[in-house]
Amino acid sequence: MNNPSSANPFVPKQALAPTPQLYDDLVGDSMQKLAATTWAHLSPIPTGSTIHDNGCGTGAATAALVPTLPDGTHVSIKATDINDAALDIYRANAVQNKWPAEALRMDAGALSFPDATFSHSIGNALLFVLPDDGVPAVKEMYRTLRPGGIAALNSWAYVPNMEPVQAAARATRPPGTPLPRQGMRKWEDAGFLKGVLVKGGFEAEKVEVRREEVFVSATVGVERFANMLWSFVGGTGEEGWAASDEGNWERAIGVVVEELGKTEGFAVVEGKVRLRFVANVAVAVK
């Protein structure tokens, strides 16, 4: 989820715990809209398809797919993640929404499925939170796809809420302190995403990457959103949280709020934040 890169155990007393529920509240409908945009490049999904929802989280990709299946289309979904709390929520969602899905605890870089298991495999907002740029996960997706099977993966080409967090870090921490999420910028390049898929085993001529706008609605107002965002991402730099972050908490939140308001497409609709993202969507055929 928030993928900290530091072993520093200090956490400011104001920071909200990075739970799957907080993550869902923070990202609003972005994961489901990103997944829906990605699935649109794979439609129609034929009946009898066996689908892998890789790094499923609480179920955004499955939730985006199932309602789009025409009546009479029967599929089987295997959903995997390493976060037990997220899997518990996925299973509850699967029961409530009658998804044709089974959730399993599994590392994306070391799947236990046999070769050539799936007709489709999706990694929604997955690669950029994994070690080694997700190349081991792509290799596993390639291995477990059938010949002619289709993989779909995505990354953010423009993330409006990252610069506000980095601006808050610059404003409240000593000069030279490593910024949160510095490694995200390389994912803005569609060629970088394609290169990861090629390193994972897909032939370059069988990988297509497109750019898509995604307008995201949060579940909360801007002050709460800024608090969740800083809590979730502010401590993910190389040095983790700074001891001074407790005293500077309100100042940091103020910077996040101010900078969010400057981003293209920012709006508050019925008291809730709306943001404009841009995604790179890659589709590859084995």
Question: Please, could you describe this protein's structure?
Answer:
The chain has a single domain, classed as Rossmann fold (3-Layer(aba) Sandwich), CATH 3.40.50. The protein is 33% helix and 22% strand. The chain has 9 helices and 8 strands. Strands 1, 2, 3, 4, 5, 6, 7 and 8 form an 8-stranded mixed beta sheet that branches. Helix 4 links the parallel strand 2 and strand 3.
Question: How would you summarize what this structure contains?
Answer:
By secondary structure, this protein is an alpha/beta fold. Helices cover 33% and strands 22% of the residues.
**Count of discrete alpha- or pi-helical segments spanning 4 or more residues:** 9
CATH class division: Alpha Beta
β-sheet strand percentage: 15-25%
Helix content: 25-40%
Enter the CATH topology name: Rossmann fold
